[in-house]
Fold these 2 entries.
Entry 1:
Amino acid sequence: MEYVDSLTGFRLDGRRPNDMRQIRGEIGVVAKADGSALFEMGNTKVIAAVYGPREVQNRSQQVNNQALVRCEYSMANFSTGDRARRPKGDRRSTEISLVIRQTMEACILTHLMPRSQIDIFVQVLQADGGTRSACINAATLALADAGIPMCDIVTSCSAGYLSSTPLLDLNYIEDSAGGPDVTVGILAKMDKVTLLQMDAKLPMDIFENVMQLAIEGCKAIAQYIRGVLLENTKQLECRRGV
Amino acid sequence: MEQRLANTWRMTNNEKKFIESVLASDLRVDGRRPFDYRDLTIKFGREQGLSEVQLGQTRVMSYVTSQLVQPYRDRPNEGTLSIFTEFSPMADPSFEAGRPGEFAVELGRVIDRGLRESSAMDMESLCVVVGKSVWSIRVDLHIVDNGGNLIDAANIAALVALLTFRRPDCTLGGDDGQELIMHDAEVREPLPLIIHHLPIAVTFAVFGEGNIMVIDPTHKEEMVMGGKMTFTMNSNGDICAVQKAGGVGVMSSIIMQCLQIASAKAADITSKIKHAVEIYNTERASQKANHYLLEVANQVSLSDVIMKEKQVENLIEHLAYMPLDELENSNQGDALAVDTRTKHESISQGRYTRAFVRGPANWDPYSRGISSRLATSFPTLPGFWCVLLGPKTFLLETEETTLLHAENSLG
């Protein structure tokens, strides 16, 4: 299958190789949660809710010098094409939960909130490739909404390599093509890579290009997320009548 | 997460500080340099497809088994590969029995991705009948001792086990040509798996602000580190999988440096694995050849000769199983009868210590029964043995050991 048109250079969904899908972030979508956000990357739609910092539910898990961060990733049954019932806690979602938790832990200033717990729940409402990245972006927005101190914002984006072209932000068809898929998460201001996952075989020099492309994507998302947060803060300011 | 934090062995702050401060000057607590790998020992089991890898203090066992199953519907002509991890509670206090925890799942997934997504194994060659039966390869990884860097050790163990694994050959036959015939290992040589390249996982630990990197972290270093990165690479310099699940941020230039180092290490480990497997294979082949020669020799000899040979073999076996005491008792009859009282005592002392050294042999009722019967039926046992056994080494050895014991207890 031709993933990049050899004549026009367009991808299957009409994007150029370096184009990202349309992204949209919305803050405050779950009323009960301390912080919540919805994040869309094209047709991928993810919702995140943050509770905390609050008292540790299970005393044996309490950490005395920092906050305990927990994360649960799940996919809605209706999120994919075939409407299959997904068993809870399968290997894939366990791994993604771990990855998201550790990524968010890297930016949360956990030492400021000892003996407390922060819960992050992310759910995929619609899956069209790049769910991992969308979840991290949504979690960042939700954490910021909850007012949890962070040293930086984490943003994530994926990139692939199909038809000898590095492609930014793969959708489901490109993702399931079996080519390399690099998911990168960066600490935007510090310009450091905190999350990096890749599979499939790729020579080292091409890997560098693909990773750089993904990092550029992350930076673009970071800019957008900053805009969303700024807008939200302005609204809050306006409501308080300052 | 669950109970882990409660049960983790906590390191003292002083120790943590020490490890960190010493790392800043490129030193490690176990005396390695930052980019030195620990010693790798690869052992094989009696059966094929069993391996035990020791990386420093970390020990991982891996066992590969196969089974005929129905293939997945979307891949009717491909075999399946599944990796199961078992974090035994004996390996680390934070491991709990029961369902695999987060880190067990992560480890399994990283190894699985390295093997599967890089198409290291030829899955189509595992197909027997399209859409009906394919071979399902199951890799069981048991962590026996957690000395840090489980991913690398487990990955090597899995590769070695897969390399030595042989599956039985099977063909289609019968009246309608649809019947599956499984060939015995004696009839047809079992087949190895087709493995194109070896994806080797190399793990780095990140310390400080993400500027100190260390390869192959130990358990202690893992307690202090801010994050880790695993690069799965093959000896051609291709990247097969990367896993850096959060943790301290790292500059992308440092990542590329690490990739270079990982690539060199991967080539090094690949050659080690190949060397070990080659030695194992040649040893096995020569064993098989010996076995075959023996079989042929038995077949050409006459029936009564075989009987005699068997008798001799049985006797040798009995001798080997028979505890030394029995032999000695019979020896005492002619050799040690004139001994003085002190010497006699010393021998009994020697026997006493020996009971501890080779305890189980004395407890084996089977060998004891037989040897006593032998001793009674052949009163002049030593001489008899000499006649029967061409090389007298065994007998000489027993006499020597008796003397040795006597001397020991005297001096």
Entry 2:
Amino acid sequence: MDRRRLLGPLNTVIPNIGISSEINGSKSTPQTGISSSSSSNKNDIENFFLKTGIIENANGSAYLEVGNNVIEVSVFGPRPIRGSFIDRASFSVECKFLPYISQPGDELFNTNNQFNNSNSNTNANGRTGLTTIEHKISSYVETALLPSIILEKYPKSTFDVFVTIVATETPTYNSNEKLMRLTNWIVNCASVALVDANVEVKDIVTSGIVKSNKSGDIIIDPRGQIEDEQNEQDEQDDQNEENVLGVASFMNLNNDQLVGIWVEGGDIDQDLVTKVINGCNDMSKKIRANINSFLIDSLQ
Amino acid sequence: MTTELKQVSFPPEVLARIVPEVSLQRHLSIGLRPNLRNFLEFKPIEIASHANNITTTNDNVFGSSIVKSGNSTIVTTVTLGVVENTNSSTSTFNNNNNNNNNNNNNLTNDQFTSIYPVIDIQRGRSGAPSDEEMILSQNLYETILHSRLISKAALKINHCGLAIKETDINSDKDNIQIFYPDIHPQVFVNLPSSSSTLKKSYSFVIFCHVKVFSKISTIFDLCYSSIIDALHDLKLPRVYITDFSSTKISVKSRNSNTRGLVGVSKSSLNIDLNNELYYPLELSSEGGISCNFGAIKTVKNKQEDEDITMENEEVVELLADLEGEAEESTILSRISIIVDGNEKIKRLSLINGDINSEISLDILQRAIDVAKLRSRND
């Protein structure tokens, strides 16, 4: 029993989210934003909204909206550490979904008991620690950002990056794609937050996401099943297993140094990985150009 | 030999950090607060309950609210749990329904319930909730309980539905239909076997998650208005029971450490996602507006003349909606008032923390008047 939080009477049961008793049986899922963006060019990057400095009690912060994803990143640091001397700063990333959000892939990882386990009576508000999915995102973001920060400049200090995911895409997305898209944008948002916190960095890390289908075509910034629209449903499912998804992060001004890569699904060979990295690099450059002009504008 | 100490002067922002009380007094003496508001001016609040789409995009969220004041943003979401009623409590529900619906005066406190809030302040630390978060949660729980806002009867699930699975022989597909005693009474006439499951009565339990971004001052007022707003937005769904769900649960073997899967069939509670059957939560009152005040002794210059400094008058000033480091650390005499739309005081807390600037009856009266005025304006 958790004595620190008010989680309701002990015999409370969290009901399953069932089906709808409407005549047609299925609940129409709101499809805001997706269908409208599908008409645009395939290799365009989805529009995103970015704002910095909204969190007053953090050293730096950034807020990003893309599609239905809403991400908030706060950077706390450099903060002094207690204990023995360290000659370079330590860096940590903690990524958390707000408790009511169903996390992408939680049906696979069985993290959120609320939706899977009918005999559990846990209130999601009382969750302590990170889920597997949150760990996965946190560790990718941490790995990608770590090489960019000049840690030697900050002895005896820590940087803590806290990512809060306020909203995610609607369930029309394939869960892997949803997770990787989210991770991609968290990296972009977190690097802007680091700049807002005036942390000395070697370069701003940006990343991109691509998807390759069975025939080996690379789609930059995939958004749901847009390109498979004409296909039959079961054919789509086949394709999803064949699809290869990749997220890669770069320091574009530092000789395009690759700082993070995550490839998932299908048959992967060297040729394909090269294609994925090149595709991600193209996308990361476009995002970088956007971020550059955003930062220049914010100085004026 | 003595060396004369030079007088050191600081720019105002440095002074505010070193000696906040002096800085505050200097501001007050010219009739202004450090945050540039008037003494009884509140910070504006923006409430966006229907502008957000948290409720529509998350199936498990039934009410939500976003409140902004300056840079502080508060996101409140309401999720639901279900608790089985014990027999003794169900009888009071029935009496309650028969006797009165409007007259709250006859009801005792145990006919009301509260919400279960969890406050999460973004503060750059992970781990267990801080004292502040715990105290705030408990405070909100008790405030809502004692303001008699939510009656137990309003949370009772009146018509629990039943899902029936029909297997279509031709297509071999399972077809699930949900029946409710009040909508499909004809179905329930022929269902004696299920009556034992349906006899149990259930009530909703309201969980609130309050995420606070960019906290810079006391946030009880903001959290309270956010929760009240989310409760106004809250729509309760229908609940149905499935008898057929068979799940596999893992069971530990008695002799070894291995785990095996055992299929069990048990009835489970489900939420019907049919929007048309959602109904708003009935609140016993509007909930009201929460205000906080602080009292501090200031010195008022009666005359600008430098010679007559003895004429200075000491007054205890009332400040509304404290904000910022200077006010929060210096002002220790505080009043917090919640007044509802009918100008009834729902909560009053008074702390006389500073002997020099005690809250007199006169000041309390002024604070109540301002709080009432504010509840009318909003």
